[in-house]
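Office hours follow-up: a student asked to see two folded examples consecutively, so here they are.
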Amino acid sequence: MEKTGKNGSARELALTGVAALLPLVCAGRIFLLLRAQGSVYTMGIFPLALLFGLYSLWKRALFLEEVFFPGVVRGLLAAGFAALQVLGLVYSHPGICGVPEAVLWVMCFTPMTLAGLNGLFFLAKRRTDELTCVSEKGAGAAEACAGRKGSFPGAFALIFGGFCIPFATYYPAIMAYDVIPQLDQIRASGLTTHHPLIHTLMLKGCLGVGELLSFLPNADRAGLALYSVLQMAVVAACFAWVYCFLCRRGVSKLLCYAFVLFAAVFPTHGMLAVSITKDTIYAALTMVFTAFAYELATEEESLGKGWFVCYGLLTVLLLLFRNNSVYAWILYVLAVTFSVLRRKPCFKKICGVHGAAFLLYLVLNTLMVQASSATSDTYAREMLSVPAQQIARVVQYHEEELTQEDLEAVAAVWGENLPEYVPAIADRSKKDIAGDRETLRIFAREWVSLGLRYPGAYLQAFLLKNKGMWDLTDVTYLNDVYSYAKGYLQITYPSDQQPYMEALAPGYVRHQKLQPLQSLYRYFAAGDELWRYCPPAALVMQPAFTCYLLLFFCLCCIGLKKRTLLLPAVYLLALAGTLLLGPCVLTRYVYPLMLSVAVLALLLFGRGRIHRG
């Protein structure tokens, strides 16, 4: 981008000045309004965005032509992004402004947003053009770079060693709230498929091994520690494998080393590695699956039988470790089937490995269910997050307008109590819904009836439940959506369930020998500490940033005409769709996207070969 100077016309200078002045005035107005409410606009992300917008205007990015897309398309994208951020501000601070002023803010922020979007597209195009030029002019050097091998043992040792710090801090494990129902299944009520059965069986097996170690003072602590070590090893191995993959694909040494170092020392990775939650291993598997999908899209003709066997087994594990991942995977398979790969010689092999993997998944899942006598009566209610929230919002805000027929239908579904509405989480609104066919039929009929009368309330319920995925300054994912899981990593469980926890795992008590380290991790995991105002750290863990980065990757692939590179992103987009239909937005739910999108960004913009898709 060229800096505004003598080459800029008077008209361009005037438009640039107006485009810079208007959002600054609006920003000042917003800060004053928030100060009057006793609030501070969160996390420093908004000022960071303003600075980048001003920089883009200074570089004359507002007047860039045909950067990937026509100006109208880029204008619509910019206006949509600005509208969502203003809407997030209004939702976070009710009454801060009226509709006319909010619309005015969107209009004032859109030109600056367009300049920033143009600048990002320009930098992405220039970066990929440079890499393509390097690959074409220096084929030998590019091939040598792409063939570089990373050290798997070295990367694994460094990452696993980094995980040992939170392991020692929280020995034997971080007992998040999800472990309570799983322990209840193992020790009292019997297994169900509410949580991935393979994960519950893995925990049960570790506890069983702990009971065999009679020489240890507490079997439960030994079993939980064994689970932590096993999970740490799996996650570290996945990170190390991806590091080697990035090296082979020609990503620069500096970025590859940064990837390993970040995996080893960034607190989120270590804390989730020792947290007994179903999402950690699944996130690591998703990251590896994304790398395999990238290879399938770019090197499908040179892949051997061993690669396809590994790809199939990885697919089976991916489906087993997340109940709803099968929906995202089916969409991914359809995209692969109807993409340009259908014209490739290995297309039949690709179809065969997908079919075999799905069949093996069904067989293994069925065998585990039958062998463990697990029940699966919770599925119907788990798919009702969005409609339950929508009905609950209508009931809360329009109860006096409901007819007697509406009230009878609500009573038939929820019983005597009306559905509880908490905007950020659907578990409260759906917890009392029975899963029988007649109840679901009444529920569906009432959902359609209220939706036709209150479409605005339905839209608001959907947006507020998923606010963390589109609002860059959202803090709902940080707070205690369950009223007890403080902080975005939920490193605690309800204090009133301590006796029940001790009954399920007798003698379990987290040691308190490393209080300074515990304080450090608590500081990082809390939602209201000073680090949240540091833009780089805040952006890394912001779910919405990951979602926008995934969208940006897809737009760049389309603009660069590398459409086959969209295949790895299809599964991630579908996974994001399942999150939109899920109960809430939590960091551990978005964690698979965070890891995978980072890998895709390194592959597209890192130093190495650029594949022509």
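And the second, which I mentioned at the end of office hours:
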Amino acid sequence: MKFSWKKLYLISIFIIVLNILVGCKSHQHTLGDYTYDAYLHWQECMDCHEKVNHVYHTYGTWKIEKEPTETEEGLRRQACSACGFSKTETISVTAHQHVYGAWEFEVLPSLSNPGKIKRACSIDITHIQEVEIPVLNRTFYRYKILREPNCGEKGIEIYSFSRDGQTLEIRRDMPLTEHSYAPSWTSNSLGHWHQAICEHSTLRKDFEAHTYRNGFCTVCGWEETVQEHICEYGAWELIASPTLESLGEIKRICKTNDTHVEYKELPLLNDKDYEYEILEESSCSERGKAQYTITVEEQTFTFLVELSLSDHSYGVEWVTDNRYHWHQATCIHTEEKQDYALHEFENGRCKICDYIGYSEGLVYEMNEDHISYRIIGLGSFSEKELVIPGAYQGLPVTKISSAAFKNCTFIEKIRVLDGVLEFGDSAFMGCISLQSIEMPSTLKIVGSSCFEGCRSLKSFHGNDGLEQVKDSAFKNCTQLSSISLPNSLMLLGKFILDGCSTIEFKAYDNGIYLGNQENPYLIFYKANDTLIRTCKLHESTKFIADSAFNECRSLKSIVIPDQVTTIGSNSFYYCVSLEYIILGQGVTRIEQAAFGKCTALKSLFYMGNKEEFQKIEIGTNNSFEHIYFYAEHPSSSEEWTFDENDKPVPFQ
């Protein structure tokens, strides 16, 4: 039989195709339990590990697990109907519907002080509503006189008003009126007087003895009679007791003729005509007692008087909340308030009680130390005056973050309260409407470009304690005319006043200075011009600013006093005639290129020793061919002293 390669080839192809078809037969998965995450669930084949049924959860209805109350949130749960995964969420506390009781007075108003009323929720007495009411007047209140006053009884006046259908009344006593007297004289043989015609008919005034002329009184016309009977009077009897407002009266009767009666007025109670003694002092809750004693012809009369209640005693210091200030009573009536009034804010501070308010809506962020905050932005704040607090939620606010208020064009005034330590870089950059800023006494750092472009800012007065003012801090503050930097300054950045053309400097010798009221020469800012040959630095100078002597090509020497600590970058750059420098012992830092391109500079004479000089931080592009160290008694070629003209004399 002849072998056929063609048949063998066809059989091989058939076997290969058959194996492929058998291998492609579908696999029956053996599935395990559902696996899930917060969004999806699926099952995995236990043989081939393929994931199937990979879909989103299908949730059923919510089930309440905990009902909410007025004070606590509730909880509800929702489960997937396929895999059993469940999620929970809180239910907000339920709202409380206040049911208020009647209004009552918390503070009674007077003619000079406002009052306050309050009412409490009958369901929850901790919910109290308070309303201020004005001083007593006849515009806000309805007014009527319940009883007119007279000389014997005080009147009653009523001020009333209505609120929420309820009428509230304030009753006040009206003072006694004056007694009324007859205009004509009443007379007897002893004298004449005006008799009271009010209910106090026994009272008299203007009593005086007759003044006779030709047998008649020149005042009342009483006819003079011859005394036929010599009276023998008994003891004086009290007819009417004197008071603080009315006279008293006593009388005595003749023992032999009772038709002869003598009357005498007693003066108003006072501490001149009477002996006065306080038996019990008054308080604000209990009346005291006083005793008045008068002697008439060796006969003594004593009168006890109940004293008025004393005024409440109040503390000297103001008590405040975020709206009001007042003086709190220090007596037993601790609820009493005096001078209760709304704050009168000016620049965030009450003009009356000095209460400090601050701006709301700012955004805060916890610092890395977890015990203080920083402000990172405006938030919802949109007012012209910004008051930054020194504390937030009971913790200090120590920093205003970089760019926190950058380009806030509407802010005109800023007041930063004590506690803030640092203004970050560009913190107020571009605040073009900012006119003034009140600094905290705690501030230590003003960051780079902090106020750059604040073209309306007119002055800056750094607090005592400020240590660093960094690069370009006030760059392009075109209206800045007054700047004060304290003696505590330790670091002065570059270009802090670039573009500030209106600054008022302090002049001395051939230079201009910045500083403060105590030391106006703190910073040597700039030479008068580049043509100067000499310049004597003030002995109180601490900083030589960047580029201060830049390109002063005729300057040959400079003496830097011991008080100077920092020589700024490029400060003597391109001073091509500068031959030598006398460097004070206080210098700690010489910035980059401070003496760059000083091609004639050969010698630097240092007021300290070699070890001290080696501690100075010297930036790049500063080189000195010869360095000499001062000694009163020279012992080597590295020491020097002064000649009679105060010129340095090195020892060779």
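Two things to take away from it. The chain has a mean pLDDT of 87. The longest helix spans residues 5-23.
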